[in-house]
C-alpha cells in the first residue's frame, strides 16, 4: 500500500475482520444480510461488511482527498471529448488543438508517474 493512505481500525469489528456485534456474539443482521445468511439462525463468524474482513478502513477524509484529482481528470477528459463531438464546427481546428494539449497534459500528469 502507499504510504500516503492512512488506515484506521474498523470500529464495527474492532479490527478482527469478523463481526460479533449481534446478540450473544452472533454476527449482526447487516453483515448477515450482506452475505445472504440471514435466513440461517444463528449466524456466527461472518466477515465484517464494513471493512470486508480486512480489519481496517480508510477514513472518509482520505478517500475524498485522494480521489478528487482523478475524478477531476476524468471530468476534464469527458468534457473535452464531448466538446469535440458536439462543439461548433467553424473553429474545430483551434478547439481540437487546445483540447488535445489539455488532454495530453492531464494524461501525462496522472499516468506518467512512476508506480
Distinctive features:
115 residues; mainly alpha; two-stranded antiparallel ribbon; 2 strands; elongated
How does this structure look, described?
- With 115 residues, the protein is mainly alpha-helical.
- The chain folds into two domains: 51 residues, no CATH class; 57 residues.
- It is built from three helices and two strands; from the N terminus they run βαβαα.
- The chain has a two-stranded antiparallel ribbon with strand order 1-2.
- α2 packs antiparallel against α3.
- The longest helix is centred in the middle third of the chain and has 27 residues.
- The protein is elongated.
- The model has no long low-confidence stretch (mean pLDDT 77).
Could you spell the SSE succession in H and E letters? EHEHH
Question: What's the end-to-end separation, in Å?
Answer: 11 Å
Count all strands and give the number. 2
Count of DSSP H/I helices: 3
Overall domain count: 2
Radius of gyration: 23 Å
| Approximate strand percentage | under 5%
Largest sheet: 2 strands, antiparallel
Sequence stretches where pLDDT stays below 50 over 5 or more residues: none
Please state the structural category.
Answer: mainly alpha
Compute the average pLDDT.
Answer: 77
Could you say which overall geometry the principal axes of the C-alpha atoms support? elongated
Amino acid at each position: 500500500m502507499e504510504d500516503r493512505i492512512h488506515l484506521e481500525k474498523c470500529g464495527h469489528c474492532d479490527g478482527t475482520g469478523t463481526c460479533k456485534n449481534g446478540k450473544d456474539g452472533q454476527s449482526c443482521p447487516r453483515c448477515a444480510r450482506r452475505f445472504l445468511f440471514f435466513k440461517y439462525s444463528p449466524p456466527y463468524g461472518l466477515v465484517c461488511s464494513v471493512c470486508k474482513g480486512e480489519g481496517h478502513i480508510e477514513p472518509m477524509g482520505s478517500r475524498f482527498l485522494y480521489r478528487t484529482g482523478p475524478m477531476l481528470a476524468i471530468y476534464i477528459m469527458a468534457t473535452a471529448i464531448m466538446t469535440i463531438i458536439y462543439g461548433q464546427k467553424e473553429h474545430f481546428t483551434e478547439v481540437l488543438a487546445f483540447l488535445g494539449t489539455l488532454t495530453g497534459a492531464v494524461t501525462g500528469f496522472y499516468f506518467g508517474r512512476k508506480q
